Amino acid sequence: MAKTIDKADVVVVGSGAGGASVAFRLAQAGARVVVLDKGPYYTVSDFSTDEVAICRRNFWIPWATEDPHTLRKSPKEEAKLTREGWTSQCVGGSTVHMSGFTYRLKESDLRLKTLTGGVAGAEIADWPMELAQLLPYYDLAEQLIGVSGKAGINPFEKRSRPFPLPALRPNPAAQLLDEAAARLGKHSFPTPMSITSKAYGNRAHCTYCGFCGEYGCETTARSTMLSTLIPQAEATGRCEIRPHCMASRIEADGEDR
User: Fold this and answer.
1) Distances (CA, A) of 234 to 21, 24, 35, 110, 241
2) How many CA atoms lie within 13 A of 250 on its CB side?
3) Residue 195 pairs with which residues in a beta bridge?
4) Mean pLDDT, residues 196-213
5) CA nearest 15: which of 100, 91, 94?
6) Residues in CB range of 112: below 8 A, 6 or more apart
7) Is the separation of the CB atoms in 165 and 196 below 8 Å?
8) Which residues have C-beta within 8 Å of that of residue 105, sequence separation ≥ 6?
9) Which residue among 62, 75, 96, 125 has its CA within the 20 to 30 Å range from the CA of 231?
């Protein structure tokens, strides 16, 4: 891919959920941004529902013999080559093959240290913010990437606006679950999904093919970084994605910046 930015204001390492979001907002604000990603830049034409090719080989995760990744589960163990715990390597990161469940945190999730009393040997801490501070950003993220759901049906969810898209068509088994939950006095609701239930911008709607988790989306309906924030960042003309570029060192100045 041709380089279009000779001198960048910001270099972002990684193009997953975190990196793509940062790159998009900075480019939108006027910065010249270069995003480095170790993996390839896939397009929808690269995806298929071939389980062996996509899930069992090195489409997402490189072979450990070619890209060494080791793991040991105790200080006494010898580290061994493994693919366990190794995240995908491609532009868009693991969002490209996520299932798309898009839940919001609850108040209790932000205060786990207080509620549990802490965990021995772990540096657990409460969040330094309240849920009310996060809500506007949940709304913004859902609008930017396109999340499908039904507002007001989950009594435990706090939100200030409806979902940008209606809920996806329910699984046939969901009706049985809804009926059982109602008899038990429980609150069933359609899971919010970062998958488009109808056309959203220039993206197509879900075709209910059933191949979400572990597979790439062949219709752009899944709200991955590859189909949402990365193209939006590139559209500013101030963001360049460089695939097959691995950062081996990050240099810091005398103030560790």
Assistant:
1) 12, 8, 10, 34, 8
2) 8
3) 222
4) 94
5) 91
6) 124, 126
7) yes
8) 131, 134
9) 62
Alpha-carbon gap, residue 231 to 227, rounded angstroms = 7
CA distance 138 to 141: 5
Which residues have C-beta within 8 Å of that of residue 138, sequence separation ≥ 6? 104, 159
DSSP the chain: -----SS-SEEEE--SHHHHHHHHHHHHTT--EEEE-SS----GGG----HIIIIISSSSS--TTTS--EE-SSTTSPPEE--TTPPP-STTGGGGG---B-PPP-GGGGGHHHHH---TTS-----SS-HHHHHHHHHHHHHHHT-B--TTS-TT---SS--SBPPPPPPTTHHHHHHHHHHHT----PPPBSB-SS-BTTBPPP---S--TTS--SSS-B--TTTTHHHHHHHTTSEEEESS---------TT--
Tokens 């772990």 sit on residue: 122
Contacts of 25 (CB under 8 A, 6+ apart): none
Share of the chain above pLDDT 70, in %: 99
Summarize pLDDT for 26-54 with one digit per residue, the tens.
999 999 999 999 999 999 999 999 999 99
At residue 87 the predicted structure's pLDDT band, cuts being 50, 70 and 90, is confident
Alpha carbon distance 37, 239 (integer Å) = 13
| Total Cβ atoms within 10 A of residue 255 | 5
- pLDDT, position 118: 86
Q: How far apart are CA 197 and CA 118, in angstroms?
A: 41
